[in-house]
């Protein structure tokens, strides 16, 4: 393929049918990396923020969430803001003397 001949060392296949990804992978000697391209590729990508549930509102078919950290992060940031506004952070134990 032209990309391979042009010097590409890998190709990312995103949101394409698995059968097409399989055909492309079979024709290339360089690795194919899939993100929503099925199992017939040489490697997989899953964006960490999506996988960990940090971002919401984006949910393509290939996304599998392994955690829901958005609520945890929101609570942590909210508590930090509250403590800073209350002049409770940093406290005396968290300051160098």
Question: Could you characterize what this model shows?
Answer:
This protein has 97 residues and is of the alpha/beta class. The chain folds into two domains: 1-45, no CATH class; 48-89. It contains four helices and three strands. The protein has helices at 2-5, 18-27, 48-51, 69-85; strands at residues 11-14, 32-35, 43-44. Strands 1-2-3 form a three-stranded parallel beta sheet, with helices on one face. Helix 2 (18-27) links the parallel strand 1 (11-14) and strand 2. It is elongated and about 65 Å long.
CA-based gyration radius: 22 Å
Low-pLDDT ranges: none
- Rough shape? elongated
Strand arrangement within the widest β-sheet reads 1-2-3
Query: On the 0-100 scale, what is the average pLDDT?
Result: 94
> What structural class do the secondary elements suggest?
alpha/beta
